[in-house]
Amino acid sequence: PKLVYDFAEGNKDMKQLLGGKGANLAEMTNLGLPVPPGFTITADACRAYLESGTVPADLADEIDKHVALLQEKMGKKLGQADDPLLVSVRSGAAVSMPGMMETVLNVGLNDDSVNGLAHQSGNPRFAWDAYRRLIQMFGKTVLGMDGDVFEDAIEAAKQAKGTQNDLDLDADDLKAVVETFKQAVHEHTGREFPQDPRTQMDLAIEAVFGSWNSDRAILYRRQERIAADLGTAVNICSMVFGNLGMDSGTGVAFTRDPSTGHPGVYGDYLQNAQGEDVVAGIRNTVPLADLEQIDKTSYDELMAIMATLEGHYRDLCDIEFTVERGKLWMLQTRVGKRTAAAAFRIATSLIDEGVIDADEALGRVKGAQLAQLMFPRFDADAATDLITKAIGASPGAASGKIVFTSDAAVEAAERGEKVILVRRETNPDDLHGMIAAQGVLTSRGGKTSHAAVVARGMGKTCVCGAEELDVNVAQGTITVHGTVLEAGEVISIDGTTGEVFRGEVPVVPSPVVQYFEGTLAPEAGDELVASVHRLITHADEVRRLGVRTNADTGEDAARARRFGAQGIGLCRTEHMFLGERRESVERLILADTDEERDAALAELEPLQRADFLELLGAMDGLPVTIRLIDPPLHEFLPSMEELAVKVAVARERGEDPGRDATLLAAVQRLHEQNPMLGLRGVRLGLVIPGLFAMQVRAIASAAKELGAKGKDPRPEIMIPLVGAAQELHIARDEVERVLAEVDPGRVIPIGTMIELPRAAVTADQIAEAADFFSFGTNDLTQMTWGFSRDDVESSFFSKYLEKGIFAVSPFESIDREGVGALVRTGVDRGRATKPDLKLGVCGEHGGDPDSIHFFHEAGLDYVSCSPFRIPVARLEAGRAAL
Ligand code: ADP
Ligand code: MG
Ligand code: MG
């Protein structure tokens, strides 16, 4: 296959092959925008390299051809002593991984051509600066040297010169720096810095390929659930220079504000600078709007290009550009990352601007983003101890102890502590600390700094550019207006307003939650709430899946209903056996005679009826699926160890252990090696006479009572852990008998959970006795994989994730191929018996976006999830139907 594409040969839809950067450079080239010429080496070539450890045989030839073409186009050659062609070697995967992989600039410079560049540009300082950058980037990226070696040398040169500003280093200073760098390379590798431009290029290409598997890239992919085997493309792009003087510069821009979504001019610009300088926070940037004063021609052209790009991509774009002596060059664009709030606002703005329709807008917002908007905010009344106000770069309200290093953040998080990572600026090596921290606070950099971009991508709270803070990492202090804060002290940061508070600030519900609660009207003037309202309303219109809630109490049911739940998909009845009711349960378990057992059940029944009255009342007119008792009974008894100690102590003292001894005997009798595979679910109902009957009587009589009051109760009775149709037939007979006794006129559907592989496989038989199925995907996952959910997630799952056995825990997101296949089997076989069998899912997966899409495809009727996930499920069910 073709391994190299000229920029003019690609387009934006070729991301898989050319990477996002390459595909978009091609798109811009074909739009006639000023892109420095170049070519892209495909991700296929990278994959081949990663698999075999060597570059594909044909690659060198193809590169030769494209280099020749490029030299022709540019009218200069690589390594040409009097006027060298320089290129950048840039990584760029199909999925954007900002700053995670490597790029080397100024490839092609050497001891000869640096003089040619100096002469040709009339600017020796620039030429030596470019050369030292090449050696620095090459040393770090290609030769694996420690970046500090280079930074320390520059720092030393600045100190010798008595300056803080790298611009004060002149050509001779930089020449000396280059000398130091070259020596460092020699010491480190035992060889000279390679002088042959093509060797530089080839080594840089290999290094970029290899950077796909750098630690931080791997960590980032795991965090963002990006497949491990995509590989990266490599872009070879002829260099343009923003560091030729004050008439040059480099910048980043967004076509709209990525944190709020508002239209306008957003970005940062830095005069006389190259590449990474803007995001690295080395010098302070100016707002992009200032470029109008600095260089109106370039500014106007940039504005026009930004409008073109937005129109073309029909979405927010982010951009990297460089001005070389008054000439604008475009170096990168992509549909930009944005905050959750911006995603919603932009989507509805674009509908209003006539750019996209409501379906497309819905496709552009995600459940995970909506979930973020439902996080609590700081309580403005309680937030009094304001330390400083900086740039709100990634929204959220985070409190935690101050830590100054990423390692400290990880250690503290492992101890279960909440921390805020405080840095002057972050760099790609801080990724693990950013993941571990509740939030990130930096004293330098703007909305486009590394910290801001990465935090937004992860949905992590971030405040940046807090210049009033004097962050001294070495001493472990922050000094602000004379106050000193130390590591370990708690601060709170507001990623929306940019405020930083001392101490922990209490939180209040977000406006979006208030909207779902019904206390904030969509037309009350909050733009974000209005956007959420429009898109979720559209989701409700288009979705086929119903959304129910898992709720055990009237309070949860009422909240879920306000959030849009169309009923209860799972009411667990076991909590109704806890608390003060424990004693009755104990009597039930300890009963020796039928009379004792019936007496205990008789105590429980009115209490359960009261619970059902509340629940059915809260969900009046909507279905309420009540699952009969499921867990093993010993869960309701004190622990065996505890009792054994009590009894032993009593005996030691010569006292009578009394009831404790009886309980201990019962617990020992009920003890099981694998309780989750033991006496639970339908098995309890079949073995303990009267237990299910009591629950059914409570349900039926509660419904009857509400019905008599003119209400519309709609209970559905669900029998757990059925593996064989016979179990369900027997249980159903008993349930029907009780229903006929209590309220013969009322039809209450009787169904079962499908949560054992055997149930899924024999669903055709089980359906004979079931009015509905609800897939219990927690147990189904547990039983299918043979994973004990309570044990494996904390023991070896991280290893499994590392080894790529799965990209996400199968308890979090449904395993489509395995557990999902059983769900499909259950659906097909169940409906083969009863075409109108009602099918739902309860369990954690009901609120997980990816799983919801799967359940839609599998043809279920509804998902059921916890009350707070209801809005997410509504939105995702809508997106699944697009
Ligand atoms: P990243 O993916 O980390 O943004 P890039 O490949 O975009 O890495 O490059 C890093 C920096 O170098 C960016 O600021 C980019 O604009 C700049 N850069 C890349 N190629 C060139 C070039 N040919 N001329 C000038 N600057 C470049
Ligand atoms: Mg870039
Ligand atoms: Mg279960």
From TrEMBL:
<feature type="binding site">
    <location>
        <position position="572"/>
    </location>
    <ligand>
        <name>substrate</name>
    </ligand>
</feature>
<feature type="binding site">
    <location>
        <position position="627"/>
    </location>
    <ligand>
        <name>substrate</name>
    </ligand>
</feature>
<feature type="binding site">
    <location>
        <position position="776"/>
    </location>
    <ligand>
        <name>substrate</name>
    </ligand>
</feature>
<protein>
    <recommendedName>
        <fullName>Pyruvate, phosphate dikinase</fullName>
        <ecNumber>2.7.9.1</ecNumber>
    </recommendedName>
</protein>
<dbReference type="InterPro" id="IPR008279">
    <property type="entry name" value="PEP-util_enz_mobile_dom"/>
</dbReference>
<dbReference type="InterPro" id="IPR040442">
    <property type="entry name" value="Pyrv_kinase-like_dom_sf"/>
</dbReference>
<dbReference type="InterPro" id="IPR036637">
    <property type="entry name" value="Phosphohistidine_dom_sf"/>
</dbReference>
<dbReference type="GO" id="GO:0005524">
    <property type="term" value="F:ATP binding"/>
</dbReference>
<feature type="active site" description="Tele-phosphohistidine intermediate">
    <location>
        <position position="450"/>
    </location>
</feature>
<dbReference type="InterPro" id="IPR002192">
    <property type="entry name" value="PPDK_AMP/ATP-bd"/>
</dbReference>
<dbReference type="InterPro" id="IPR018274">
    <property type="entry name" value="PEP_util_AS"/>
</dbReference>
<feature type="binding site">
    <location>
        <position position="755"/>
    </location>
    <ligand>
        <name>substrate</name>
    </ligand>
</feature>
<dbReference type="Pfam" id="PF00391">
    <property type="entry name" value="PEP-utilizers"/>
</dbReference>
<keyword id="KW-0547">Nucleotide-binding</keyword>
<dbReference type="Pfam" id="PF02896">
    <property type="entry name" value="PEP-utilizers_C"/>
</dbReference>
<feature type="binding site">
    <location>
        <position position="779"/>
    </location>
    <ligand>
        <name>Mg(2+)</name>
    </ligand>
</feature>
<feature type="active site" description="Proton donor">
    <location>
        <position position="842"/>
    </location>
</feature>
<dbReference type="GO" id="GO:0016301">
    <property type="term" value="F:kinase activity"/>
</dbReference>
<keyword id="KW-0460">Magnesium</keyword>
<dbReference type="InterPro" id="IPR015813">
    <property type="entry name" value="Pyrv/PenolPyrv_kinase-like_dom"/>
</dbReference>
<dbReference type="InterPro" id="IPR013815">
    <property type="entry name" value="ATP_grasp_subdomain_1"/>
</dbReference>
<dbReference type="GO" id="GO:0050242">
    <property type="term" value="F:pyruvate, phosphate dikinase activity"/>
</dbReference>
<comment type="similarity">
    <text>Belongs to the PEP-utilizing enzyme family.</text>
</comment>
<dbReference type="InterPro" id="IPR000121">
    <property type="entry name" value="PEP_util_C"/>
</dbReference>
<feature type="domain" description="PEP-utilising enzyme C-terminal">
    <location>
        <begin position="531"/>
        <end position="878"/>
    </location>
</feature>
<keyword id="KW-0670">Pyruvate</keyword>
<feature type="binding site">
    <location>
        <position position="779"/>
    </location>
    <ligand>
        <name>substrate</name>
    </ligand>
</feature>
<keyword id="KW-0418">Kinase</keyword>
<dbReference type="InterPro" id="IPR010121">
    <property type="entry name" value="Pyruvate_phosphate_dikinase"/>
</dbReference>
<dbReference type="GO" id="GO:0046872">
    <property type="term" value="F:metal ion binding"/>
</dbReference>
<keyword id="KW-0479">Metal-binding</keyword>
<dbReference type="Pfam" id="PF01326">
    <property type="entry name" value="PPDK_N"/>
</dbReference>
<feature type="domain" description="Pyruvate phosphate dikinase AMP/ATP-binding">
    <location>
        <begin position="292"/>
        <end position="343"/>
    </location>
</feature>
<feature type="domain" description="Pyruvate phosphate dikinase AMP/ATP-binding">
    <location>
        <begin position="54"/>
        <end position="284"/>
    </location>
</feature>
<feature type="domain" description="PEP-utilising enzyme mobile">
    <location>
        <begin position="417"/>
        <end position="498"/>
    </location>
</feature>
<feature type="binding site">
    <location>
        <position position="778"/>
    </location>
    <ligand>
        <name>substrate</name>
    </ligand>
</feature>
<keyword id="KW-0808">Transferase</keyword>
<feature type="binding site">
    <location>
        <position position="755"/>
    </location>
    <ligand>
        <name>Mg(2+)</name>
    </ligand>
</feature>
<feature type="binding site">
    <location>
        <position position="777"/>
    </location>
    <ligand>
        <name>substrate</name>
    </ligand>
</feature>
<keyword id="KW-0067">ATP-binding</keyword>
